[in-house]
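Interim report, section 4.2 (structural modelling).
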Amino acid sequence: MPYIDSILKEKRVFYPSHEFSRKSHIKNMAEYSKLYKKSIESPEKFWAEKANELEWFKKWETVLRNDMGFFKWFEGGRLNVSYNCLDRIVKSGKGSKTALIWEPESGEGKKYTYEQLLKEVCKFANVLKKLDVKKGNVVQIYLPMIPELPIAMLACARIGAIHSVVFAGFSSDALKDRIRDSNAELLITADGSFRNGKIFSLKKNVDIALKECPTIKNVIVVKRTDNNAYIANGRDAWWHELINKKEIKDICEPESMHSEDSLFILYTSGTTGKPKGILHTQAGYLLFVYLTFKWIFDIKENDSYFCTADIGWITGHSYIVYGPLSNGATVVMYEGSPTFPKPDRFWRIIEKHKVTIFYTAPTAIRALAKEGDEWPNKCNLSSLRLLGTVGEPINPEAWIWYHNVIGKNKCPIVDTWWQTETGGILISPLPGATPLKPGSATKPFFGILADVLREDGSKANPNEGGYLVIKNPWPGMLRTVWDDPQRYKNAYFEKFGVYLTGDSARMDEDGYFWIMGRIDDVIKVAGHRIGSAEVESSLVSHKDVAEAAVVPYPHEIKGQAIYAFVVLKKNAKKSGQLNDELKKHVAERVGPIAKPDKIQFADELPKTRSGKIMRRILKAIADGSKDYGNITTLTDPGVVEILAKNRLN
Ligand code: WTA
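Predicted structure of the assembly:
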């Protein structure tokens, strides 16, 4: 059943056990409601109280200030994010607690205590300093899921450099675009990465990208695969050689950072062409991921927490690195594919590391459910006490499978809704308190005023679909779009004057949110955020393509997949071979995750008289709904019929 139909019919409710509630941070809905009310009525008081749980070098002067639409939190305050994630935990007596468990795809893993992680971070911070990286400089990071990735991020945070991580599954072109936008001077990468037992030559991508990135002066390369990567004289150096030099000390004073200094840039797709660099700053972001992680994942001293996201996306930034470490938690990070060598890999990791909290994406749940219950049933999953999902709507069927087969009907599921821009989770159950409805992200977190609006800005009725908006600022929100403040204003605040999420949703009669998906040109393929514009421009960069339009269609496992309509140039011939070549071309230009599942050749695309391609109509063709709406404004309404007739099944 398609997601929308199944969530409209969903009526089941699941309650946390008394046992779970009794031990949790927020124990019932009365407590939630009371605290929620307080957080909305006196947000500054609420956040200031919580900010006291972090360690400050200097306390703030103002909690919140609206500077012409740009929000500033905790101005006048000074702290250091890496200090709060490492030194603060060590000082509290937990230096010998495991901070990070690294599970490689094959071979021996590694563990770091908080003390060891602190030393590694300090050493690498000193390496960066030696290479002349200064506070406020941008450091580009293009690494697979290896410990050097969080170490590099925390080292940047320690010396006040701004990190910009690019997902290692992106191609050289995507990397190049991001470097050219951030103007980074130093890049950290690896010779290669492992996935499904195969080696991907990351360094090759880097070498291609750097031909057009004059700002990069130094490249640090982690040896991961031993695949004889090219090391350019004067520019490139091995991580292990730099860090093992005698003069590199394992102590590095943390830089005293202003609350609103930049912490990181993370590029994400928006409605128009170029990916935007979402900027997060120090104190507000740290506080928000600290508190959401603590309460939503109900973290306890002995938990072992496993998040399957890649650190190249926001989920990894906030809920593998900064949220868990600032809480002194033990985090499991995994390098490879969920099905390597067999489809029980996640379940084996849970068994091996006695994972108590497991956080993954609906796509993974659907894919692994399809492999059969025998895989999880062979493993001991009894350590689990809490499950989470993120990245896309979860259909109730997948939710129920997750609850029964993985959670053995005893683990609450936190369906967490949020975005790169929001920094942390905004809508989610609190596991000890919130009654769960499969498919709903339930209620807003403290301090978050979420609502559903109609096109004219009025409030939608219960169960009426509309624009999901956030009506007040929160500490973890993006501060701007890197190098493009106007885009920040236009993309997020122009339409309603409050934060526009880009999602549609409905709120039911109990105030529960049901997220329905993106209403802009962003496509969530297997939970990955892809801009249709990025895929389209890579298609038209092919010599045979004149025009391209890309839309999502529902996919059983991936949630959404990409359907491309392509108009070829006059002398190019439509063929299966060219079709395959175009798919490959997108994989090479953007990354394999952006590869269209279907490419339909067309002679013409539906356009308005002003020449605008009507994606709404193409979407209704691709998903087979035939819900075209008004087509009389098209230059040639006949186009629709022809395209629909040739639709690929
Ligand atoms: C979608 C990922 C439904 C949504 C953290 C949002 C979700 C986009 C959920 C942001 C959820 C995320 N239920 N949809 N629980 N979580 N989304 O920036 O469309 O990669 O706008 O951040 O993912 O994707 P992003």
